[in-house]
Amino acid sequence: MASLSRPSLPSCLCSFLLLLLLQVSSSYAGQFRVIGPRQPIRALVGDEVELPCRISPGKNATGMEVGWYRPPFSRVVHLYRNGRDQDGEQAPEYRGRTELLKDAIGEGKVTLRIRNVRFSDEGGFTCFFRDHSYQEEAAIELKVEDPFYWVSPAVLVLLAVLPVLLLQITVGLVFLCLQYRLRGKLRAEIENLHRTFDPHFLRVPCWKITLFVIVPVLGPLVALIICYNWLHRRLAGQFLEELSKLSSLSYKQRIKREERETEATRGRGGLLRDHSPRGKEELESLGGGKTPPGRDRGKRPAVRHIYRWQRNWKHSHLLPHPFLLHCP
């Protein structure tokens, strides 16, 4: 009977462990864990992105403080406290761009929506739940990508060169088709030409063919040169004839004028014998004195010059251009 009243060692150890477990469970009855996505969330520039976050075990988080901030400077992205959003505590770059989805907050699940994603949003976000003095956090990674970032430079070069290559191939095919058709037509025309060609033409000497080609070209040119020389000589002869007439007329007028002066001088011969001053003055006033120097000497060279032109009028290269003879 004594042995049954004394407790055994294993029963005491089990009782101690049971009490310790009950104490630990009672002390951690109000605690929870925050769980976020393990993989990075990817978003495109300008799009919207959602960052989910929940507590485990799930319970109503309406009375808790829920928020997101960015380390290392704890910039507040969005804050929910006392049942409402605290927009005044947001960082300036996130104002008006965030929204807290509270549809499942009774189950401990919330989601942060960010609009108009920027490159500066790339990086880590921290989601936290605070119940009185107890707080748990979870890290979320956001990757922001350009819509065309996935395209490699080789693909871009290929996309730029491909239209040019297609255009060149198309033009080449069209050109080959046209060339093939024209070649067929040309071949048919050549065959028809050989059929209708006069075989006598092949026996004609080459010099006859050359003469037949050159004569129609050189004939008008030679005729034009002959007409030019004939017109040149004719106009030159007319010019010399008119010049000789004018020269002879001026020479006759000069002779007549000198004869009149000589007769006038002889008619006043009595004045030459008068040695009075009055007679000398009258003689000088009437011009009965000596002939001005150079008058007789200048007469014959001009005549010789005119005769020289008359003798050499056939030398057309010494004359001016015939079309310039009638110019004033």
From TrEMBL:
Residues 1-29 form the signal peptide. Keywords: Disulfide bond, Immunoglobulin domain, Membrane, Signal, Transmembrane, Transmembrane helix. InterPro entries: Ig-like_dom, Ig-like_dom_sf, Ig-like_fold, Ig_sub, Ig_V-set, IgSF_BTN/MOG. It comes from the Eukaryota. One of its GO terms (cellular component) is external side of plasma membrane. It is found in: Membrane. The chain crosses the membrane at residues 148-178, 209-231. Residues 260-283 have a biased composition (Basic and acidic residues). It is a multi-pass membrane protein. It holds the Pfam family V-set. GO terms for biological process: regulation of cytokine production; T cell receptor signaling pathway. Residues 260-301 are annotated as: Disordered. GO terms for molecular function: signaling receptor binding. SUPFAM superfamilies: Immunoglobulin. Residues 46-141 form the Ig-like domain. This is Myelin oligodendrocyte glycoprotein. It comes from Mandrillus leucophaeus (Drill). The lineage of its organism: Eukaryota, Metazoa, Chordata, Craniata, Vertebrata.
